[in-house]
Amino acid sequence: MKKTPIAAPYIQAFEQLGFGMFVHFGLYSQLGKGEWTYSIHKRTPEEYRPLRESFRVGSMRDIVETAKSAGCKYITLTTRHHEGFSLYDTKGLSEFDVMHSPTGRDVIREFVDECRKEDIIPFFYHTTLDWLHEDFEGNFDRYLDYLYDSVEILCTEYGKIGGLWFDGNWSKRGADWKEDRLYKMIHRHQPEAMIINNTGLSHRGEFGETEIDAVTYERGMPQPMDQSGREKYVAAEMCETLCDHWGLADDINFKPVKQLITELCECRKVGANFLLNIGPNADASVPLMQKATMQCIGRWMETYGKAIYNGRPFVYYSDKREFLLRDAFDPQTAYLFVFNLNQAGGDANVTLNLTEDGMMVLNRIPYPVESAVWMDNGRDIAFRQNGDEFCFKPTGFRYGTSLCVRVAEIRFQKS
């Protein structure tokens, strides 16, 4: 039988974070046409580069407060996106950075400081693709030296960080990106930093170079990870947008809060993190709809966050959406996620497949259950158990409350 590797402590710590906020912010934010506007709208360097001269950033506080209000434990910010403009001091590597804009301040340093005030872990997104750097197409080896030196600044100037999130290797799939050299440098300076390299929409969940610490699922639901036979345990993370764009755009096609909460739950079902994106305004303030959406998710997290942060994959089913997570720190505790509970008028109604006496049946519950309570109100749940078959009363929310997905805390008897 193939052995399953044990996750390194820093990878276990990453998995416990559970929920993070992605932030796409750069020169493109001034145009409000999405982060890919340079490429999609076929803008020229002569047209685009002058955006640096009007780049004026306010406080990074609003971004961090928005993450805090949602219950996010980490933030991944675009330190440099595909446009090639850096939000940090590149120490003379390039004049196409925030220090040569009217802002004149190291925005990344301020971002990190604000994160630490709120006990949020800063992660750095960094492009590997660069639309405006002439060496990207003209002298790729020299460009990779520039990329290496740029990332080394991020690894040495801001204290301990959560990790690096790379994006762009899909632009030259046959090229030698010298990943081994880059990743070894990162872990030399930041031995506990997660290294994540986005494999894109068409290669979700693919394993990469051996130093990679997490696979990505861009706007696609993660699958259970098969770690057996691998030399190293690798985590998983899904990144998702609030609407149709990553960066600020003329976009009101917002996903329902229920959908986003459900996706968060589905990620945790298979042990993956959920990284939910916002696209701030040109001054780094967060648009009201984005902020409100994150606050609504935060309302759910206030009630059920313990299950998201502490829960690990335990029991799930192919024929129903319900599943259980087991508490990583208390093996006698599990969390039961129940979907599609409705409330109407003063009565709690459900639209589920139930037994004649209104019970939902779950099998493969390996331990005797001692108690079951709803986490939102602490009320006991009626249940009975026969061997590994557990039947419980899936009561919906009472009138006056509707939290999309309901979670129960299950206590097992001591063995």
Features:
TIM Barrel; single chain; eight-stranded parallel beta sheet; 2 domains; globular; alpha/beta; five-stranded antiparallel beta sheet; 415 residues; Immunoglobulin-like
- Helix count equals 10
> CATH homologous superfamily of the largest domain?
Glycosidases
Residues in β-strands, percent: 15-25%
What about the largest sheet? 8 strands, parallel
Helix content: 25-40%
With strands numbered from the N-terminus, the spatial order across the biggest sheet is: 5-4-3-2-1-8-7-6
In terms of quaternary structure, the protein is single chain
Level-1 CATH class name of the largest domain: Alpha Beta
CATH fold-level label of the largest domain: TIM Barrel
Q: Compute the gyration radius: what is it?
A: 23 Å
* Topology, number of strands: 18
Q: What is the H-and-E element order?
A: HEHHHEHEHHEHEEEHEHEEEEEEEEEE
Second-tier CATH architecture of the largest domain? Alpha-Beta Barrel
Helix/strand class: alpha/beta
Distance between the termini: 28 Å
Please outline the helices and strands.
Blueprint: H1 9-17, E1 19-23, H2 37-40, H3 45-48, H4 61-70, E2 74-80, H5 107-117, E3 121-127, H6 135-138, H7 140-156, E4 163-167, H8 179-189, E5 194-197, E6 214-218, E7 235-241, H9 257-269, E8 273-278, H10 288-310, E9 311-316, E10 323-327, E11 333-338, E12 341-344, E13 347-350, E14 360-362, E15 369-374, E16 383-386, E17 389-392, E18 406-412
Helix pairs in contact: 4-10, 7-8, 9-10
